[in-house]
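Module 6 notes. Inverse folding takes a fixed backbone as the condition and produces residue identities as the prediction. Think of it as a translation problem where the source language is geometry and the target language is the twenty amino acids. Below is one complete input and output pair. Work through it position by position during the lab.
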């Protein structure tokens, strides 16, 4: 027996709800209590973090999942779809 203590299940990144569903971000790994960063979707400051530690409001992430259910189910996120910065190819 475990003495009545309930063990917290391990953190499972990337659990995506059905479109219109809500993310379960009660785990402390979704919150940075020390610093706010701009949300990758709306650019407003947030202490919230995605499963990949990206700064994003929970509501912004849920709205993105609802608008992009196929990409979300494939494990992608809004910031994955942003164009990569240009490489400086100096072919001198």
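Target side of the pair, the amino acids:
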């Amino acid at each position: 027996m475990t003495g009545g203590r309930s063990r917290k299940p391990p953190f499972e990144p990337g659990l995506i709800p059905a479109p219109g569903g809500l993310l379960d971000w009660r785990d402390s790994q979704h919150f940075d209590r020390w610093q706010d960063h701009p949300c990758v979707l709306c650019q407003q400051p947030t202490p919230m973090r995605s499963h990949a530690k990206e700064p994003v409001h929970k509501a912004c992430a849920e709205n993105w999942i609802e608008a992009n259910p196929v990409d979300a189910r494939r494990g992608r996120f809004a910031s994955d779809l942003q164009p990569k910065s240009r490489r400086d190819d100096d072919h001198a």
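Reference fact for the lab report: The first helix runs from residue 58 to 67.
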